[in-house]
## 1
Amino acid sequence: MSSFDQLPRVSLCHQPTPIEHMQRLSEHLGINLYIKRDDCTGLAGGGNKTRKLEYLLGEARGKDVDTLITLGGIQSNHARQTAAAAAKYGFNCELVLEDVEGTVKQDYYGNGNVLLDKLFGANIHRVDEGVDCLDYAYKLKAKLANEGRKAFVIPLGGSSAVGSMGYVQCANEIMAQSKSSDIHFDKLVLATGSAGTQAGLLAGFKATEFNLPVYGICVSQDTQTKKELVISLLTESLKLVGKGGADIADDVITDGSYVGKGYGIHTQEVVDAINLCAQLEGILLDPVYTGKGMAGLIDYCQNGRIKKGENVLFIHTGGSQGLFAYREIF
């Protein structure tokens, strides 16, 4: 038994999530496009952070804490799912949420994920853009300690090596689903932000020598900065699955071409991708993550980086709850 199998874990996630063929969008793009429905993980409307939180809450429960602290942007999907997980397992929840300059503001502060954070009973600390949210979180932890409370800080996006184990588990699902359906995927495409999802998938595939290139469409940062972040987290994740020391640099593919003006700031290509998926497939993407990921995938089909007739798997990491905060762009 590997150390991965021995990690403490709670139950939060509907899994395995299905893989569906996107027939009409496939015909439109000239490829065979499949979608892994990690928007259907269940917790708080679903999303990729649910898988990570199973392991992160397992770690927190082992430390006998009463409060979870995490951080992100105002419309953080991770914050929403953390607040829900905290409610389910009886933790207090403190969210350190940073404003994002350049986002549409009409519904940004009160709708979407923020509305749900409040419904789940989280205490929101709204901070200005540029504040070191991790430093703020640890100062908050110290303040709570002085009040007799014991807090556990979950990193941005739940993207620690422990959190990434949720996507090692997802990689195992994909391999099993590929085998049972007899579909060989040529490429996997996803939106990559805090890097835990991409690192976990790569660690899972690397551990079993499953050959599936993973293309991370960046939602923030440039190509090289994101690649270094994924490599760092993948290195730590591989240690947990008993594969430390593996050669990984060539396995990490990131692309910062679709970030636009920055994290959380939509582009016209993102709006077009969201509309296309909604109107051809009845699938809801979001302006921050999956919309950018799909915009990149569509452009890859148009520029030949994805070839006609290839089998492509897109990971739907959730986030449609955020659409309501971006209503005015539609």
## 2
Amino acid sequence: MGARPALDRQDLKILSILQAEGRITNQALADRVALSPSACLARVRRLEAEGLILGYHARLDVERIRPTVTVYGEVTLKSHRPADLLVFEAALAEIPEVVEAAQVSGPFDYLIKAVTPDIRAWGELADRLLQEGLGVDKIASHILMKEAKPYRGTPVTPSST
């Protein structure tokens, strides 16, 4: 996490619009932020080069593509040594069904989000995590019933500091 780059209101507006509308044309974006197309494109390229824009993604309705079960797993490890955490995180990175993972504070160590074809496949994945020498002590599973508020982006507002 390097130094925080200086961002003006136009940069923040560009980031906010791109986060909501990743396929917007440069011309439309320039119009919305009151810049010339060339100045707008230069800003977008700078924001990309500075690592503030990490990528552009399509949000899929995976339920319409194939059957799925989404599970949030609370994972508790036996050890909290940095090397053990890295081994676990490296293993997660190799499991395509684990679509998100975060190390958290509190009564468990990681919150993972897995998308599997069915509950049986989740059970097999959980068993693998428990059995593969990754130092997993326990996993508490929570099945997604409904997305009450899907992720739509993070608020991008000027900092008060």
## 3
Amino acid sequence: MNVEQILSQQQSELDEMAQLLAQELDAIVARDHELLISVVERKVELLRSMQQRDQHIATFIEQGKVDITTFQEQVNQINQLLAECKNQNDVNQIAANQSQIASQKLKDILFGKSQTGYDKTGKSISLPNPIARGLKA
């Protein structure tokens, strides 16, 4: 396999990664845990494959078998796709964190944990939870 073929495979893997990241965000928003697990598993497989391809290309370069500047346009496209995937991954991480926070707040409300508020001086105070008051589960 030559460098051009490896770069083409890497580019198509990054295209697939971009699609997976979109699916991952949909799964996070929909709270579809089964889909999320399958997407994450596929992401891990793709990342391993891309890492192997990077190592293969590095070996070619170290051995002087290829001048990577010959493929600069393709490398630039790959770097652009990689940057887009990284940005989408950051968005997904924020969405997952927000979803986790919302779930925790809902759990706190349902289990009667007191809420936090502020008094007129701006100090944080604990407020009773009116929803769970007097409930015994």
